[in-house]
Every structure is written in structure tokens, then in C-alpha cells.
Predict the structure of Probable queuosine precursor transporter.
Amino acid sequence: MTFKTKESRLLLVLGSFFVANAILSEFIGVKLFSVEETLGIKKFDINLLGVPNLSFVMSAGVLTWPIIFIMTDIINEYFGVKQVRFLSILTSILIAFAFIVVWGSMHLSAADFWVHQKINGEDLNMNNAFAGIFGQGMWIIVGSITAFIIGQLADVLIFHRIKKITGERALWLRATGSTLVSQLIDSFVVIFIAFYLNPQYHYSWQMVAAIGLVNYTYKFIVAILMTPILYIVHTIIDGYLGKDLAHKLIKMAGRG
């Protein structure tokens, strides 16, 4: 198959960004950062459900998830639910494959000259650093992949349910609405599996709920702020496809 038509090239580009950002999110997600300190403001120090000193500590994976969900909604809009489901399942398989490859690379015998290096004036054991960064626990991996699949399936289902009511109007409602619900699911599923079911941590349900609510608050705000970006991308794609082809694809996608 060759990508000669505008719609096939568009699907290739959107699908590539979707897969690439999902895999990136998994690997950069091991880094936790303070949203408040990054913005140069004081930590909020929230007390929620009896859990004190909560602040907006997020996984670096949140940098790419808005792109993933914009790609999800755009692919949903122009190509339909079946394409999003296929890409979601394919991406989950590729994420699992990537972790298997990383697991194998961690068990390679490191070269002596590479292990001990000085980075920014500090002596580091590169082999330990590599394992620490890429060697995420199995519970976290399972939780992350499970949350991704459930969140994506919920997103496409809600997107089309809203579209059946609004038709081609109110793109912001079906796109942002589906993202907000899917991210609510994602925020709690990954924490529940990775830290509540995991015997290594076994967080209380209050801890899971509190952390999940704080994380979702951040994602809620970002999802709202990303709505104008969705319209910009939609306008660019309409310009690329042309009005007639864009309308034809949207109409066909709406049939399921």
C-alpha cells in the first residue's frame, strides 16, 4: 500500500504522533516534577481526605498526554471509532514490546569504561542510573497500560455518544467532554493498580483517592486550556483536505 491520497497521509501522520507520544509518555513518566515550583509559585500544601501536604506533583508524562488526546479526538472525528480502537490496541502492544526490549537491555553486561562517568561534576554509576530510569516496576507498567486502554476506549465511546446528539456542531463539547471523562478514569486506574494493589506500596484508598483527585484537577485544567489548540489543528486539517473531502470523512466517521 502506498500513501498517495491526502486522507491516507493524514492518518499516517496522526497515527505516528499518537503512537510516538504514547510511548514517550511511558518513558519520561518516571520523572516526577512539582508543577508549582516549575511555575515559580509556592506549593499549595493541600489537605484532602485526611491526607496532608499534597501538592501538584505530576509525572513528566503529562507533557505528552494532551497531544495524545488531541490526536485521539482528531482521528475520531475524521476516521471513526474503529481506527482509534485499532491504534489504541496497537500502541498498547508497542508499549509492552518497548518495555520488554528495555528489560533485555538492562540485563546486558555493561562496558567497564561506560559504567563510571562524571556528569555535571558528579560521579555516577551509569548502569545503576540506566536501571533506575528505565526499570519501572511491573505493577506500574501494568497499571499504565491498563489505564491507557480503558481511557482510550472510554474516550472514543463518549466522543461518539455526544456526536450523535450534537451532530457536527460543538466539537469542543465532544472532544473536551470525552477527554475529561477518560482522564478521570485514567487518573484513578493507574494509581489503584500501581500503588493500591501493589503489595510493595499498598496505599490506603484515601491516599489513592486524594492523589487521583489532585492529578485529575491538573489534567482537567490542561484539557480546558487545550481546547483552542484542538480547533487550530482542526482548521489546519480542513485546509489540507479541502472542505468537501473533510466533510465527507467526518460524515463517514460518524457512521462508526
